[in-house]
Amino acid sequence: MTSTKAPGHATRSSTAPGLVLRILLLGAVLAVTVWIVPVMIGQRQWLWLAVTVLAALGIFVLYSTRRLVPGKYIFPGTFFLVVFLIVPIVLTVGYSFTNFGDAKRGTKDEAIASITSNSVQQTANSRRQALSVGVTGGFTASEDPADYTFFFVDPDDHSVREGSSTQAATAADPDSITVTDGRVSAADGFTILTAKQVNEVYGTLKDVGVETSDTTALRPQGTTQAFEGTKTLRYDAASDTITDSISGAVYSVKKVGTSEYFVDADGNRLPQSWLQGVGAANYVRLFTDSSIGSQFLRAFGWTLVFAAGSVLLTFLVGFALALVLNDERLRGRRIYRSVLLMPYAVPGFISLLVWSNFYNRDYGLINQTLHLHLDWFGDPTLAKAAVLLTNLWMGFPYMFIISTGALQSIPKDVLEAARMDGASRLQATLKVVMPLLLVAVSPLLVASFAFNFNNFNAIELLTGGGPFPADQYTRGATDIIISMVYRAAFGGSGADFGFASAMSVALFVLTGILAAVQFRFTARLEDIS
């Protein structure tokens, strides 16, 4: 009788902590879900809402029972795969069919609010209020006005209001703010900027209007004050038009290019638009615009040369060094190997920044040491050679490591048999060692090619994509496709995320096709034994 109860008692005791932990986990998931779902609905984040709800349901189904044990182990990896890989791909593809970019980010209502609020003019009766600017998290000099929240203190009744370029001013919660000397000095969830920090981004903030009514809005005037002025542009919802109260011009919705704007009778448009679907217009522009298409093809050609050249050069140097240091007759092999691994131990971005100084035309180490006067970053050919040379320095230790491992796995009797058959050392290396080594390292070479195909850091930190032609900034001589995408998304002509997303999708497809071709080619090596 005792022996039959003991196991049950032991099982109950051992599972009690697990049961408590399970209850706490499910309770935390439920609390987070209940809190975040309304927020996502309010912000219309439908994709993330679906991911959140499905993840919560999956957690409750899997971890509320002792069954479905395999799913408990598979779920975490699957969840992070979806969040960090699948969802970004879906979002990128989705944005590629929109006009998402500068002045085209929010809804139409937000665009109307921004247009009318930014038209605020100061009058003789405009009242001034103390201004504080806050950001969520740490301060970065963002160029998006929507990233800033404004706090206003009325000097007469000391009331405090808060708002932004997309949110009308409302009364602030007195328990969440601290007012010092008539200005908001602290606010829960915000970092209040200093006057110096506000001055750094004043070019972004000076034209922002925070709506207070249908006809008035608050607008910054200096780093510590704001005035409440009158809107000169007013929206009429019945006719879906915006009227300029000073000039009398009426702006109605018309399509300009692929996006809709408010345009007057003379064809003058207001600067703000809104997020819209444009179908395949971005892809049509990519493949039919002669200027963009030619730049994309040139970038694609250089990307192939850069990726293939980097893999070939690093592999040849790494393999040659591994072959030499694999000779047991060589003394001090461990010391030599340790020295050769040093470039691999230095963080890549540090190596790139150091090498960028080496190529300086006036005081760079290369020109001074070799008594040269080469403008490495001013000549397209020299700039490309500099990129390949630097990538060789950074990449050969990796190839040296994998080649050393592959060489040590080749049985010595294979080489001895080749030598007995009359093969020279060179013949044995090329016809025996190399094929056997490629069987092991071919997948790694394919992975290295794919990595260099999208090696943004090697271009941006070394040459910045340059040198650039005098007439355009879309693509420089050393820009590969991924850095060209970056310049399209964040370039000097303004952000164009929709078009950059279309280029990213094209790059993703090209990378996949090239990888498939390479794997198909390397599969033939499987017959080598």
Automatic annotation (TrEMBL):
Subcellular location: Cell membrane
Superkingdom of source: Bacteria
Keywords per UniProt: Cell membrane, Membrane, Sugar transport, Transmembrane, Transmembrane helix, Transport
Cross-referenced Pfam families: BPD_transp_1, TM_PBP2_N
Entry membrane topology: Multi-pass membrane protein
One MF annotation (Gene Ontology) recorded for this entry: ABC-type maltose transporter activity
Domain ABC transmembrane type-1: 300-518
Main location: membrane
Transmembrane segments: 20-41, 47-65, 77-97, 299-323, 335-355, 385-407, 428-451, 497-517
GO CC annotation: maltose transport complex
Biological process, per Gene Ontology: maltodextrin transmembrane transport
PANTHER family recorded: MALTOSE/MALTODEXTRIN TRANSPORT SYSTEM PERMEASE PROTEIN MALF (PTHR47314), MALTOSE_MALTODEXTRIN TRANSPORT SYSTEM PERMEASE PROTEIN MALF (PTHR47314:SF1)
Family to which the UniProt record says this protein belongs: Belongs to the binding-protein-dependent transport system permease family. MalFG subfamily.
Function recorded in the entry: Part of the ABC transporter complex MalEFGK involved in maltose/maltodextrin import. Probably responsible for the translocation of the substrate across the membrane.
Name by which UniProt lists this protein: Maltose/maltodextrin transport system permease protein
